[in-house]
Amino acid sequence: MNRKKRTTYFLKGMRDGLPIGMGYMAVAFTMGIACRNAGMTVYQSGFMAFLLHASAGEFAAISLIVAQAGILEMIFTQFVINLRYILMSCSLSQRLDAKMPFFHRFLLAFALTDEIFGISMSMPGKLEPFYNYGALTVAVPGWVAGNVLGLLLGNILPVQVVNALGIALYGMFLAVIIPAAKKNRVILGLIIVTMLASSLFAVLPGIRELSSGIRIIILTVLIAGAAAFLYPIKEESEVSHE
Fold first, then answer.
1. Which of 95, 119, 200, 209 is the 20 to 30 Å CA partner of 237?
2. pLDDT higher at 11 or 75
3. Does one domain contain both 60 and 161?
């Protein structure tokens, strides 16, 4: 790929990643407050945010740090909570060029999040890594900055403002799924079914006791599998022959 094309993809990624970065900053602000309450320093909070791009995972890590848990318990907890990223990685790998170098795959996997996955899968055709790099250029700094600012300023802002910042991530998710739902009724139906099933899983005895990561995996496999069977998407080669 020539330099001009890489720049085009990179800038498009930055544009699509800007609202994600802003949402991350708002959500991470509350995590910075949790880091402050756990006795962490600015450097510790920022470094953890840079390495761990998962809100549930970071909250769990902070709780385990406060409880003085062992390293094995922390590793196992992070593995269970973030199991859904295995499914996301498998799905995303199908969109990558088979000849893509390992270091590109490594960087894409390192910064894979729910929101980055969402915009990546919405891109037509094969995924260009420079699109993700552009999105990460604004998303990751937003996540880190939110953590640091939350630690530094968390006790200054009113409680109502801090609580309001916590819902920013949900608005960001809506911004990802609504455009696709407006264009495709099948996607709209799947979103509704997923929301209802997720609510049901949260109250069903036996299932509600499972971790959120495992519940997400079960829902993903069931609903995505059913959708793939009922509404299969033609391969690009099949479309080109028609």
1. 119
2. 11
3. yes
Kindly state whether residues 16 and 92 are assigned to the same domain: yes
Give me the number of domains the chain comprises. 2
- Alpha helical stretches, state H, 42-184: 42-51, 55-66, 71-81, 84-93, 102-110, 114-121, 129-153, 159-165, 168-183
Residue 203 has pLDDT above 70, yes or no: yes
Amino acid at 216: I
Task: Say if residue 142 is in the same domain as residue 99.
Answer: yes
* Residue 228, both tokens: 């793939």
Question: Across all residues in the chain, what is the average pLDDT?
Answer: 83
Residue 176 lies in a domain: no
- How far is the first Cα of the chain from the last one, in angstroms, to the nearest whole number? 28
Domain that holds residue 137: 3-169
For the entire predicted model, the pTM comes to: 0.69
* Nearest by Cα to 133 from 14, 47, 25, 5: 14
Q: pLDDT tens-digit profile of 162-178?
A: 666 666 656 666 766 78
Dihedral sign, CA of 173, 26, 15, 102? negative
Amino acid at 13: G
